[in-house]
Design a protein that fits this description.
Length: 441
């Protein structure tokens, strides 16, 4: 819900005379409604009041069947996201909502941030590109008051106590003040840190703030060091600098700190990024605070085999993560970013696509050959699929991971269009264009 804040601002700009209504769980609406001035909030218990109102469009960002049903019931000229039809079948309206759905179990090479994906079906790229944010600079300058957000929605996203101990030791040795933040479930680790370092109780804010009170306290801090969590996004959207400690089954390209000037640190593993963990959270194990300490000493010019440091930036007007050293998967991710932007009509970047393909070819020519073989195989397969008008839902997994961004999107598009002839022609046209790009390298 918090990640819809940019969408809310863009809607206000694009549709200044339209009221904006949010539908959601009551306990969530109560927590976040103060962040959306002028919006109208409805919970499940108050839906009857709006089911007879007329809307310009409805946008469902949930995957729940109840929300798809609601999207069917609401009277709107246009509908986006999951929607149930009169026969009870589920469809996905909007090409970018379809793309977002294709990322389930398949986000390794995604470079589109969810805040952008929330909006791209209903907001123009120019509106997103021209929105004036208060951008920060990529300089931490060793701030005085540091907020350490100890928790997240899942344990796998949270640094362990050894990480926080290492970091607090560094701060205290440099006469800096680390303040502990979190909810009631972080109280236990906070108590142990307070006791270990004899910290004043006034530096422990765990369990003391709800989201609104936390937002009001943000001006007190100079920097937040935090896992990927809702309060991180609140701090970012309120213009505070964030250093995101990324671990567990989250991808900073999906849900990292949105505004430029913020940074992400991630321990590198071959399985990163992932949707769910099958390797005992190797990215979290033995995550050291030493890299954070180096950053706070302004040592940006280093290369580390174990960790990746990413800087939040913009590419073609959208969120993008950059790093000083570009690795193979980063190049493949940029390729798919440009490809889907072209496929779904955001831009025409054939020159940039050819350029990144040449870089990939220099780094590893086998990837180009693999993509070419997979595209040809897919071209042959879809003719059979459309003849029978049915497909195994795991079809996309038959392809190599480098090609799966496209096979995953295709299978949803075919099903979503009931294997129509126009959908078949569109897929064949794009695959032929895709093959031509690869052959030109």
């Amino acid at each position: 819900m918090i990640l819809t804040y940019p969408l809310f601002l863009w809607l206000q700009k694009a549709y200044p005379n339209h009221p904006i209504c949010f539908f959601g769980e009551e306990h969530i609406c109560k927590q976040v409604k103060d962040f959306f001035p002028g919006a109208i909030f409805f919970s499940w218990t108050t839906l009857a009041k709006v089911l007879h109102a007329d809307f310009f469009f409805s946008l469902n960002l949930s995957h729940r069947k109840e929300a798809a049903r609601l999207n069917y019931l609401v009277r709107a000229e246009q509908k986006y996201g999951y929607v149930e039809n009169r026969d009870g079948h589920l469809y996905i309206k909007g090409k970018w909502q379809l793309y977002r759905a294709s990322l389930v179990q398949n986000n390794t090479f995604n470079a589109f941030h969810w805040a952008d994906l929330n909006a791209l079906d209903v907001i123009s790229l120019d509106t997103i590109k021209n929105h004036k944010w208060s951008f920060l600079t990529n300089s931490l300058s060793f701030p005085l008051k540091l907020g350490l957000f100890l928790g997240a929605s899942e344990e796998s996203k949270c640094p362990n106590s050894f990480f926080w101990e290492e970091l607090i030791t560094f701060f205290l040795n440099n006469n800096k003040k680390p303040f502990l933040l979190g909810g009631l479930k972080e109280k236990k680790i906070a108590n142990s840190l307070v006791e270990k370092f004899s910290l004043p109780k006034s530096m422990d804010f765990t369990g003391k703030f709800n989201l609104v009170a936390f937002a009001k306290s943000i001006s007190f801090f100079d920097l937040f060091i935090t896992p990927d969590t809702g309060p991180m996004h609140i701090a970012v959207f309120m213009g505070k600098q964030v250093l995101n400690i990324s671990m567990g089954n989250v991808s900073p390209w999906d849900t990292g700190p949105y505004l430029p000037g913020n940074m992400v640190i991630r321990r590198y593993t071959d399985c990163f990024p992932c949707w769910e963990c099958n390797f005992n959270y190797e990215c979290k194990n033995n995550f050291s605070a030493r890299l954070v300490c180096k950053l706070l000493e302004n040592e940006f010019d280093f290369e580390d085999k174990e960790y990746r440091l990413y800087f939040v930036s913009r590419k073609n007007g959208l969120f993008y993560l950059k790093s000083k050293f570009m690795y193979k998967n980063d190049m493949v991710r940029e390729f798919w970013f440009l490809v889907f932007g072209t496929l779904l009509g955001l831009w025409n970047e054939e020159y940039q696509i050819n350029k990144i393909l040449r870089r990939i070819s220099i780094y590893d020519e086998d990837i180009i050959n693999l993509l070419l073989a997979q595209a040809r195989y897919c071209l042959n397969e879809i003719k059979v699929i459309f003849k029978n008008k049915e497909i195994n839902t795991s079809f996309w997994k038959k392809f190599d991971i480098y090609f799966r961004p496209l096979s995953s999107y295709f299978i949803l598009e075919w099903q979503n269009n009931n294997f129509s002839m126009s959908c078949l022609k569109r897929s064949i046209y794009f695959l032929e264009m895709f093959i031509a790009w690869l052959k030109s390298v």
